[in-house]
Amino acid sequence: MCFSARFALEVLGPANCVEGGTYAPGFSSSRCYPAPAMKRLTALGVVAVLAIFFAFSHLSGQSRDTKVVFVRSQTAILAHPAGAQVDELKQQAQTEVDGLVASLRELDAKLAAGNELTAEENERYQALVTSINAVQDRYAQEIDAAARPAIEAVNGILADLAEENGYTIIMDADKARELDLVVYADPDLDITQMVVDRLNAQ
Q1: Can you state the angle between helices 83-112 and 119-165, rounded to 10 degrees?
Q2: At 70, phi and psi to the nearest 5?
Q3: Looking at residue 58, what is its pLDDT?
Q4: What are the strands, taking DSSP E only, across 64-189?
Q5: How far apart (Å, rounded) are the C-alpha atoms in residues 138 and 10?
Q6: What is the distance between the alpha carbons of residues 44 and 174, in angstroms, rounded to a whole number?
Q7: Low-confidence ranges of the chain (pLDDT < 70)
Q8: What is the pLDDT of residue 132?
Q9: pTM as predicted
Q10: Which of 4, 150, 190, 191 could be joined to 80 by an S-S link, Cβ 3.0–4.6 Å?
């Protein structure tokens, strides 16, 4: 199993939002900002479920035993030397977005009190939303680049462990939990510490 560059972006956290939009992932705001992120997440969930279904179906038709294990992706990434930079970028993003969100909340409070926004306030509101989206995009790209060495290292270790131990499927525990793909898994199936140990030994 190989994680793509998108694997790094999960460091920011999942987007959870009603009203059909999304908010700055991993940040403290509960405000829903219009964006297609939830649709992408739903599509990702469907793809993940189908991929797992076909993988099990394919393996069940063979004599080879199916051996499934899990890895906590974010723990593995942050254990790599590049993880420190990823974590630092995450904290910078948190601080920057929190400031923008605080300004939005002031305007939200006015709306919640039954007051209408002035034309100037409406313009400011839209500018803040645009700024939040721009900050997210910028940090997503920076985190993506910073985490790439860690992703490549983790991918290599997972490939080695799969070959050595006969793993047929390695699932991302973080993504499985986020999408409710697994109801129960034996803790002994978690190979994260094995990955971390090999990262530390490199």
Answers
A1: 150
A2: -125, 155
A3: 54
A4: 68-71, 169-172
A5: 15
A6: 14
A7: 1-64
A8: 92
A9: 0.61
A10: 150
pLDDT by residue (tens digit) across 73-118?
889 989 999 999 999 999 999 999 999 999 999 998 998 899 999 9
Quote the pLDDT of residue 183.
81
Q: In which residue are the tokens 């992706």 written? A: 73
Tokens of 85: 């930079």
Segment holding 186, helix H or strand E: none
Residues 6+ apart with CB under 8 A from 29: 23, 97, 98, 101, 104, 105
Per DSSP, the residues of 10-36 read GGG-----STT-B--TTSS----B--T
User: CA–CA distance from 153 to each of 57, 170, 193, 194 (Å)?
Assistant: 30, 15, 15, 13
Position 185: which residue type? A
d(CA 169, CA 59): 10
Radius of gyration of the chain (CA): 20
**Cβ-proximal residues to 31 (8 Å cutoff; 6+ apart), any chain:** 23, 101, 104, 105, 108
Quick one: 123 exposed, middle or buried, by C-beta within 10 A (0-12, 13-18, 19+)? exposed
Q: How far apart are CA 178 and CA 182, in angstroms?
A: 10
